[in-house]
């Protein structure tokens, strides 16, 4: 059986798309341009960039705090994305939060359960975190599963 160059190229392109998160740090620096696709391969994806006080005594402390800050920022970005999601009946999550108190608790629980897919550190101990949330685990429509 003959495999053409075109077939190999198509397969390589497919596998590259499934390989994971694009690196956002190169040579110890956050890249000047960050291309982000908020919805990809059945996931909502958000990034956060965090830093810490450079006066902290150890690299571990600086990195830990920078990562925590990046996670919180990515969760905020994810929240912003999900507020625009339409629920059953055409109501947006943002609008649903105004009328359904259980929805807010469920939304926060969902965001906190997002997978920390990648953490990248910079030379100056900053951090870039990528969060992923499968679309099927997002907020249930009002009145369902709350």
In short:
This protein is of the alpha+beta class and 146 residues long.
- Proportion in β-strands: 15-25%
Structural class: alpha+beta
N-to-C span: 55 Å
In which range does the helix fraction lie? 25-40%
Helix-strand topology string: HEEEEHHHEE
- Averaged pLDDT: 74
Tally of helical segments: 4
Low-pLDDT parts are 1-19, 139-146
Inertia-based shape: elongated
Spatial order of the strands in the main sheet? 3-4-6-5
**What radius of gyration results from the CA coordinates?**
19 Å
Q: Would you report the number of β strands?
A: 6
Largest sheet, strands/sense/barrel: 4 strands, antiparallel
Provide key terms for this protein.
single chain; 146 residues; alpha+beta; four-stranded antiparallel sheet; two-stranded antiparallel ribbon; elongated; disordered C terminus
Describe the structure.
Helix 2 packs across helix 4 and helix 3 crosses helix 4. The chain has helices spanning 5-18, 59-82, 93-99, 101-112; strands spanning 25-26, 29-30, 39-40, 43-50, 115-121, 127-134. By secondary structure, it is of the alpha+beta class. Helix content is 39%, strand content 20%. It is built from four helices and six strands, in the order αββββαααββ. The model is unreliable at 1-19 and 139-146 (pLDDT under 50).
Show the helix and strand layout.
Blueprint: H1 5-18, E1 25-26, E2 29-30, E3 39-40, E4 43-50, H2 59-82, H3 93-99, H4 101-112, E5 115-121, E6 127-134
Antiparallel strand pairs: 1-2, 3-4, 4-6, 5-6
Helix pairs in contact: 2-4, 3-4
């Amino acid at each position: 059986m003959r495999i053409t160059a075109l077939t190999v190229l198509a397969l390589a392109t497919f596998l590259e798309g499934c390989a994971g998160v694009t690196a956002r740090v190169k040579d110890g620096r956050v890249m000047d341009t960050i291309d982000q696709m908020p919805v990809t391969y059945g996931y909502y994806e958000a990034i956060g960039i965090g830093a810490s006080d450079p006066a902290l005594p150890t690299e571990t402390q600086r990195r830990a705090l920078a990562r925590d800050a990046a996670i919180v920022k990515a969760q905020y970005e994810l929240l912003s994305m999900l507020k625009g999601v339409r629920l059953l009946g055409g109501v947006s999550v943002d609008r649903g939060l105004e009328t359904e108190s259980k929805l807010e608790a469920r939304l926060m629980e969902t965001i906190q359960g997002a997978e920390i897919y990648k953490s990248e550190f910079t030379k100056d101990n900053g951090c870039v975190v990528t969060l992923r949330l499968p679309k099927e685990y997002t907020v249930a429509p009002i009145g369902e599963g709350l």
